[in-house]
Design a protein that fits this description.
Blueprint: H1 3-10, H2 17-25, E1 46-49, E2 52-54, H3 57-67, E3 74-78, H4 84-92, E4 95-100, H5 103-115, E5 121-125, E6 138-143, H6 153-157, E7 159-170, E8 174-181, E9 187-194
Parallel strand pairs: 3-4, 3-6, 4-5, 6-7
Antiparallel strand pairs: 1-2, 7-8, 8-9
Helix pairs in contact: 1-2, 2-4
C-alpha cells in the first residue's frame, strides 16, 4: 500500500485533517524493521522487537484525533515503541516527552526519529504507568499500551486543567478511554471503541 492509499482509507474514519496530513508526512517505513518496510504503509500493526508492535495506523490516527491537538501543546507519550506515534504527535503539538520501559526500543526510536528529521521529542526510559513528573503537567497524554488496572492515577494527576488523556484499558475487553481534566481538578471519563494493544507493564 502507498501512503496516499492509507490516508484515503483512514479518512473514512478520521476527520481531523491535521492528523491525516501528519500520517502522510511522517515516513512510517523509517519506524519499522528493515525486513518489514514493504508493509510499512499497510493498515496493520507490525512487530518491532522486545515483544512490542508499531500500532495499526487507524488506531493511532484515531487516538491522535481524540487528543484534539492544535499545535501549541506539551504532550506526554507513554510507550515509545519505534517512535512513530511520538513522531505524529510531534507534528501535531509543540513538543513531546515519550517514555519507554525498554531501553533498546528507546535507543532505536532515537535513531528513527533522527532519520525522520523529528527534533521536538524528548525520550525517557522508565515506567510509563507513573508518567513523567519532571515535565508535568501535560496538555495531552497518549498511552499506547493497555492498562489492566483502569486509567493510571499518576497520569490523571499529571494532566493539566483542560487537558485530554487517551488510554486503552483492559477489564475483560480492551477499549479506549478519553479523560478530560476539569477546572475543579476532577476528571470526566468516556469509554469508546474496542482496540487491541500490548499490555501496559508497571514496575
Amino acid at each position: 500500500m502507498r501512503p496516499d492509499e492509507l490516508v484515503r482509507g483512514l479518512s473514512r474514519h478520521v476527520r481531523d485533517e491535521r492528523v491525516l496530513a501528519a500520517v502522510a508526512e511522517v515516513p512510517r517505513q523509517l519506524f519499522v524493521p528493515p525486513e518489514l518496510r514493504g508493509r510499512a504503509w499497510d493498515n496493520e500493526p507490525l512487530p518491532i522487537g522486545a515483544g512490542q508492535t508499531i500500532s495499526q495506523p487507524l488506531v493511532v490516527a484515531r487516538m491522535c484525533e481524540l487528543l484534539a491537538l492544535r499545535g501549541d501543546e506539551h504532550v506526554l507519550d507513554v510507550g515509545t515503541g519505534s517512535g512513530w506515534h511520538a513522531a505524529l504527535l510531534a507534528r501535531l503539538a509543540r513538543d513531546v516527552v515519550s517514555i519507554e520501559r525498554h531501553a533498546s526500543l528507546s535507543e532505536q526510536a532515537a535513531s528513527n526519529l533522527a532519520a525522520a528529521g523529528i527534533e521536538n521529542v524528548t525520550l525517557v526510559v522508565g515506567d510509563g504507568s507513573l508518567g513523567y513528573e519532571p515535565s508535568a503537567p501535560y496538555d495531552a497524554i497518549n498511552v499506547a499500551a493497555a492498562s489492566r488496572a483502569g486509567v493510571p492515577p499518576a497520569l490523571e494527576e499529571q494532566l493539566a486543567v483542560g487537558g485530554r488523556l487517551v488510554v486503552p484499558t483492559d477489564r475483560g475487553e480492551q477499549r479506549l478511554v478519553l479523560v478530560r481534566k476539569r477546572a475543579d481538578g476532577g476528571v470526566d471519563r468516556r469509554v469508546l471503541e474496542p482496540v487491541r494493544f500490548v499490555p501496559l507493564v508497571s514496575d
